[in-house]
Design goal:
Layout: H1 11-23, E1 46-50, H2 55-61, E2 67-72, H3 76-83, E3 90-92, H4 95-101, E4 107-110, H5 114-125, E5 130-133, H6 141-154, E6 158-160, H7 168-178, E7 185-191, H8 216-220, H9 246-255, H10 257-262, E8 270-277, E9 287-294, E10 303-308, E11 329-334, E12 338-341, E13 350-352, H11 373-381, H12 391-410, E14 414-417, E15 422-423
Helix pairs in contact: 1-6, 5-6, 6-12, 9-12
Length: about 450
């Protein structure tokens, strides 16, 4: 149930309560400790899975050793597919009904399209449930702030589903950078061949019949009503502003993850588009280049992070002669060398130039090894260490990334005020920081 106006936090109290989250990240280089969250030495975690197709199917199967109590999906076909693995689980079409009726729950997995992440995850945390949520954590900047605040308030165990975080290679990369291997970093490049789904298109005008297995009203969820069309359907929803976050939101939470952890990035000072093609009012561009400027962080210098998508790639004079740059990856450009990851997850990397690092020895491991993104979350619920992609990190990370979409849509350089959660030089762009919600699907913080 939505709160009455007098029950909702004021904008002032909301901003005050979340100011630290806007620039705070989990500090890499230390082992996450145990927070005083509601955990226990549970034999099996009682889990509900919200969203059963695609990543939801694989996320659900990852819960096979726990007690899967309920499954929820707006399409009966998706429900039936995952129910084959969990025939005892109750089935729901509406996650709100699930959260209202299932009292014997410990945790939920949220693997819906982006536009439903926040309302489902927020509803679960307000019930005191632990939450695993697919990336990007949210559809909007404000939602990312709200989820980070709710996770802290309710002291629940959380994890965003950017699986590279739990790969040993990424953690070794963090340690290499933080050991000083490549020196001070003032420039980072992140690139991808995405989108591999339609972008740069207008919303369809024709009306098509709703599939008999689909609850279209529930698929829309917090979005205002529009006629059904398969152009919004499975996988291809990613390119639409109302439902997805484009190539940037879909992939930066993977590819920029190593840089954000290793360089302790928080809120950027500004973000601006340097190139954009195919942008429409309805969908993200076919390709773009964005520049995020980050301030100095303690002894770490200010740096620029440049995002390239749609097949755009950075110049790479640091790459060995004759070698072709990967179609997706990242490069941290240091004073003493480059960490190059030709990998979407930051788990595969090397230091360049190779001859300079021929005798380099990796530092002793500091971060935990040998887990995966689901197991780390489940172990956290059972009393283990705090998951590394918890919402105290994933919220500010997602928030920073999604500022890029505001720059794309506004066409302006945007100077960011993280405390006030506004743009200092372009108040007209503030509209891209938050969403509007259909009745019954309001986001309560």
């Amino acid at each position: 149930m939505a709160r009455t106006p007098e029950q909702r936090p004021s904008r002032r109290s909301f901003l005050a309560a979340t100011a630290a989250l806007s620039s705070g990240v989990w500090i890499p280089g230390t082992i996450p400790g145990r927070d005083p969250v509601r955990r226990g030495r549970l034999d099996k975690v009682r889990v509900a899975v919200i969203g059963c197709a695609g990543k939801g199917h694989s996320d659900g199967l990852a819960m096979k050793d726990e007690q899967v109590v309920a499954l929820c999906d707006v399409d009966e076909k998706n429900l039936a597919g995952l129910a084959e693995a969990f025939p005892q689980a109750k089935r729901y079409a509406d996650f709100r009904e699930l959260l209202a009726k299932e009292r014997a729950l410990d945790a939920v997995v949220v693997s819906t399209p982006d536009h439903t992440h926040a309302v489902a995850a927020a509803g679960a945390m307000q019930r005191g449930l632990h939450v695993f949520c697919q990336k990007p954590l949210t559809h909007s900047v404000e939602e990312a702030r709200v989820l980070a605040m709710l996770a802290a308030r309710h002291r629940v165990v959380t994890q965003m589903g950017n699986q590279g975080t739990c790969m040993d290679g990424l953690r070794a990369g963090i340690e290499a950078v933080q050991s000083g291997a490549i020196g001070a970093v003032r420039e980072v490049h992140v690139w991808t061949n995405r989108p591999v789904w339609p972008q740069g298109i207008d919303a369809p005008s024709e009306v098509q019949a709703i599939p008999t297995t689909l609850r279209w009203d529930l698929w829309l969820g917090p979005r205002k009503h529009r006629p059904y069309h398969p152009a919004y359907g499975h996988f291809v929803w990613r390119g639409w502003w109302d439902f997805g976050t484009g190539a940037l939101g879909d992939m930066a939470c993977h590819i920029a993850n190593l840089a954000f952890f290793a360089l302790e990035l928080g809120a950027p000072l500004s973000v601006e588009q340097e190139l954009v093609e195919g942008l429409t009012k309805d969908s993200a561009p076919t390709r773009s280049r964005l520049r995020f400027r980050f301030p100095a962080r303690g002894e770490l210098p200010a740096l620029d992070l440049i995002w390239h998508d749609g097949g755009l790639v950075p110049e790479s004079p640091w790459l060995p002669a004759g070698e072709k740059l990967s179609i997706g990856g990242s490069a941290l450009i240091g004073e003493d060398g480059v960490l190059y990851s030709p990998d979407d997850y930051g788990a595969v990397w090397r230091l360049l130039p190779a001859e300079r690092f021929a005798d380099w020895k990796a530092p002793a491991p500091v971060l935990p090894r040998g887990s995966d993104v689901h197991r780390e979350w489940l172990e956290g619920i059972k009393g283990g260490p705090t998951p590394m992609s918890n919402f105290a990190h994933a919220g500010p990370f997602t928030e920073a990334i999604l500022l890029g979409n505001a720059a794309l849509r506004s066409g302006k350089r945007l100077d960011w005020d993280p405390i006030g959660m506004r743009f200092l030089n372009a108040p007209e762009a503030d509209q891209y920081l938050r969403d509007e919600y259909a009745f019954g699907f309001e986001l309560d913080g």
